[in-house]
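Co-fold these.
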Amino acid sequence: MAEARYNGTELMISLASRLMSDNSTAFIGTGVPMLAAALAQKQHAPNLMAVFEFGGTGAVLEKLPLAVGDMRTYNKGLYAAGICDIMEAAQRGFIEYGFLGAAQIDPYGNLNTTVIGEHDHPKVRLPGSGGGNDVGSLCWRTIIIMRHSARSFVPKIDFLTTPGYLDGPGAREKAGLPKGTGPYRVVTNLCTMDFDEDTRRMRLVALNPGVSVEQVVEATGFELIIPAELAANEPPSDTELRILREEVDRERYYI
Amino acid sequence: MAEARYNGTELMISLASRLMSDNSTAFIGTGVPMLAAALAQKQHAPNLMAVFEFGGTGAVLEKLPLAVGDMRTYNKGLYAAGICDIMEAAQRGFIEYGFLGAAQIDPYGNLNTTVIGEHDHPKVRLPGSGGGNDVGSLCWRTIIIMRHSARSFVPKIDFLTTPGYLDGPGAREKAGLPKGTGPYRVVTNLCTMDFDEDTRRMRLVALNPGVSVEQVVEATGFELIIPAELAANEPPSDTELRILREEVDRERYYI
Amino acid sequence: MENKTLRLLEEGQGKLIQPFDLDDFRALNRAKNKALVDKRCSEKEAISRWVNEGDYVGIELYGTVRCPMSLTREIIRQGFKSIRSAAQGVYEADLLAAANCIKEMDWTYIGLEVYGVSHNLRRTVESGYVETVVEWSNAALAWRFKAAAMGVPFLPVRSMLGTDTLKYSAAKVIECPFTGEPVALIPALVLDVGVIHVNRADKYGNCQIDGITGFAAEMAFASKRLIVSAEEIVDTEEIRKAPDRTIIPYYVVDAVVHAPFGSHPGEMNGEYERDEEHIKRYFEESKDPQKVKAYLDKYVYGVADHAEYLDLIGRERLDGLRIKEG
Amino acid sequence: MENKTLRLLEEGQGKLIQPFDLDDFRALNRAKNKALVDKRCSEKEAISRWVNEGDYVGIELYGTVRCPMSLTREIIRQGFKSIRSAAQGVYEADLLAAANCIKEMDWTYIGLEVYGVSHNLRRTVESGYVETVVEWSNAALAWRFKAAAMGVPFLPVRSMLGTDTLKYSAAKVIECPFTGEPVALIPALVLDVGVIHVNRADKYGNCQIDGITGFAAEMAFASKRLIVSAEEIVDTEEIRKAPDRTIIPYYVVDAVVHAPFGSHPGEMNGEYERDEEHIKRYFEESKDPQKVKAYLDKYVYGVADHAEYLDLIGRERLDGLRIKEG
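Predicted complex below.
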């Protein structure tokens, strides 16, 4: 697959960053999303407003924050408030993009970050919802970033931590979740996927460089919708890689 | 009644101020209560924490505030927040004394500050609840300050703006109001009254200087409980009068 | 799950003057431009662009403190006749009433504090010009803004219970599903337009307020459209130096009006005292409808804008109101 | 009125670990002394006086920022074994888990952010030492503190709906009496003890925080007993100069602990960076229970108090973490 010019993480970061439009808002959690947002700000989205869970808004992402409450999340910011203020802004519809990851994902984009096995006697205790459920409930468009494997892309997840499209069309609204929200894209080391409007099931959109449909199908534990026409994801440009390596994550915490 | 050494307002202010104990908290509205609190602070209650509706807490009442949002309400204060913060502090039980006035009061201490006549076609439109209903609902002990007359002390008020004991014992709790709260004293130009524990009806406690029981009964439009023993309210001392006239209300806005 | 229910114990009979749809509100908030764009404009432009006849308009202030008076006078000047509003004010509500701008009101308190009842409000309500009056407590109204600001349909509260205030409001009382006890639910109040005066703002709308904040943040976040006026316009670098001083972030703001002495005849936290003489005279005159008309003709209709108003009041007089250091 | 009802659509099956009675909470708040009294004491005094075995203890922080670590280490040092807590932290929760202090948890997120999962938490939960785990989202937990801070039994929210997170929480879903749509209700969380670290406080407990405030105010107001530690103790005149900077007012505070570098190895807004090397090493070692024990023996049990801890870390090293001006 991807040649040695870049690694899978760098690819996912650049793909995610390209999904964010300028003059918009993104709810940023720790890890890859921070790098994607920082990269977007330095590229096509200088006016992307980065919103951090614990209160930072409009920070200039010069140095990579290591934590969602890190000083860098409100460094030279425009508004340093508290977690409730930010979550309520999301509840009021102010936040366009949210980023999520998970141990397990199902065909409807529902996510598990809580337990593997039974909740009360877990095989593996995972970190929990954190802000994930709130992001998946309240942001307009959530972008899910994961490594692609049949172990994590499963027909049924052990625990539904964060809502995707639940069990199909209209289910979110029926549950009382804000109208018009839900998973927007799934970005993996193999491809980009979205969700079919009629079934709300995951659909392949674009393959990463050197990746075949067969590879994607093999790494997906459920039936994926494969459209007749597929786009191709451009690899990270030299500029993107330079910014990532020399500006965004100098210390290489993530890449 | 009261000789010319002081007027009825000055008497009511000093009586009200004496009801507030030190190291406590008082929710202060505009008018007489502000003067009473300021007087108390300068006399027996230096640690009386004055809380103002729009956010001021712990101010040093050097100059008389003219409005509940006046700068003087947080001048050298300890905490300048917003109306919700203050009202929520009251809802959490932090505020001991609240002061209320009204156009009409009934035997249970229920107050009308909304309309005389029918609500939808009022004879007289009064200022409304303002913070009154909140004070009467959320403070532990409310002190009602009014001029005594049969026109305002009535068997049935035209509109129940602010809760006293509603229709008797247990009625506040039954309505969902916080336990153990309610009217504490009624201070008038004629006397001080409280509320009988068994019936929650108004009861005479102490007569003002030179006032007879008959005068009080005559000025009360409903049957007042008259106990066998009555206390006597001390007139404002020279010190109290000096502080009121020379320090608290120099401009004589109220007295 | 099996059909469990909760008891709905009481429903206020007051009209919900401003029905809300949180998903529509979300869509409007989503559509607001998040870019840093210069939003400065005059009172005239702000009101004519962002306020429509019949709108539900909220004006934030307390007593005579931090009142957006230059914007309030512009609303009157532009001749609105059927504004719906939350009456939690003093001088500004009295003035709007005097000019017959208001048709429906969520009412909590309108009086002139130390100077007593509001004659203009009495006239406009007792005469029936104001068609609908719905009762609320001060906290309830502030909490209704807070509910909208939180993006939720209601907030539970422990005041208003057992009273006619609740009966003539649009609140409801339910049996709490956690405690089993009665609790009042007050509906979110999503404003068409919010009008707020602050100490300083940058051209994008990031606002700082000194001293108590009243319900500025709650109202700002509860407004579909938000007009702020500021005593001073500062560079954004000032904002970035202390982001924890920002009470209202730029992205909720639609218009920024530079209005020095914008609260006159009211006061401004830490900047100037209220014009006691002017207010006292106004409240005296307000007993007489003719004199009120004369006041409006002179101070509102008779001037083209806030600058002319300040000239009329007199710069020297205004300087005299400034708070001296210390 | 006639028997109207609302539908109760869903009830989370999770345990309400900390049942609440708002009227009892009111009585406790009423009993707090409102006088300005000196509340300064040591970590040892604060924890032994205000924390009891089995208490529900909340520790406010975000990631590794503004952590009351000197107080957390004292809780471990005093050997508590059955604390109930809200796990919304990182390093401090990991440490409490490593020392087996916790029996029941309201859980939202416990991981080490950039360094991945918390090995100690995994062990304590997977081994069953922690008997009860109730799920919540981050916002839901913060809003539960906010409900208590507002003095109301619950808050309505639009997250958690439709998920197992709600099913394994103690939230309920009702039909909104205003919109008719489903809305989640999350119960108030009234803490026995709240533990918060701030930039500066006066001896009475008036606290200032620089930068983002996390959920400090909500937790402070949701606590029956409140212990604050501060990097710096300032004169009350400093507080009175800027009352609008007070995030936590004195009257809710029970103990004030002077704890310079109290957040170490975490960071402090505007004062010092986190000790990356120390944290990285700890998280590496935390994979091995023996090494965790050695860490606790050295940095917690092996020192008498915070002063000794700082000596052990080394004053020079600490100075190196200070943020240089600009």
